[in-house]
Design a protein that fits this description.
7-stranded mixed β-sheet, 10 strands, alpha/beta, 7 helices, 3-stranded mixed β-sheet, 2 domains
């Protein structure tokens, strides 16, 4: 099944968008839409064939709060209706590892993946149809919460999808679906190749192991490039990172 692919970007991850798009095109070369959703006050240069959408909803940092939830769902609904396809949201610091799971969106409105902790959904990659997003919007309008609190995107959207649409949350299964690129075991090529959905290269706990001297964007870029080579069978190990000049 084909899909439209979105990432919600910020200036910090501008250098990662070409690698993010490369990973999508590697598996889905016929995808009709690969798009970066920018903040209105933080637009950045984009590579060729990556569409830009501009939004002005309050993201509360990394997509938290009621405004961010409503903004994400509204964007997914609009893109899904405009393309007639399900929408896959992937974090900019994440490499798409497989697309077979998209076939499930023929019968479901939402597919999510459990993170490394029980009953927690990860936000690095999930799929949703326009109908699924619209079901949540219709069921929750007006939004029932007087105060949004933190409301992190990953857990909140998954919970709403499970409540108001046809949804499935895949279990963690030891990283069989989504995986964080970590030093040691979870950075080995034979482990990376087992991930069926996505590999998150910007995991904070993993980056911290390299110390503060390593520039985050520099290191995540190298992790993404290495992951792409691992998935294509051209890389056997992750070289020790060097501080960015």
């Amino acid at each position: 099944m084909n899909a439209a692919f979105l990432t919600f970007t910020c200036a910090r991850d501008a250098a990662l968008v070409p690698l993010w798009a490369q990973a999508v095109r590697r598996l889905c070369p016929s995808a009709p839409l690969i798009a970066a959703v920018d903040r209105a006050d933080e637009c950045m240069p984009l590579p060729r064939k990556v569409t830009r959408f501009v939004t002005d909803f309050d993201r509360q940092g990394n997509l938290n709060g009621l405004a961010a939830i409503a903004g994400i769902l509204g964007t997914i609904a609009a893109v899904g209706q405009g393309t007639g396809l399900p929408v896959v949201k992937i974090d900019t610091d994440t490499v798409l590892a497989g697309c077979n799971w998209l076939a499930e969106l023929g019968a479901l409105d939402y597919i999510g993946f459990e993170g490394g902790h029980p009953l927690t959904a990860t936000g690095i990659c999930y799929g949703m149809t326009a109908a699924g997003a619209q079901k949540i919007i219709s069921s929750c309008s007006p939004w029932p919460w007087q105060s949004s609190g933190k409301l992190p995107e990953d857990q909140t959207i998954c919970s709403l999808a499970l409540l108001h649409s046809r949804a499935r949350l895949h279990p963690w299964a030891g990283g069989r679906h989504v995986l964080a690129f970590m030093p040691g075991h979870f950075g080995r090529p034979e482990v990376l190749r087992k991930a069926a959905v996505a590999i998150h290269c910007g995991q904070a706990s993993g980056l911290a192991k390299y110390g503060p001297a390593v520039n985050r964007t520099h290191l995540v870029s190298r992790m993404m490039r290495t992951t792409l080579r691992c998935l294509s069978g051209r890389q056997r190990r992750f070289p020790a990172p060097q501080p960015a000049p």
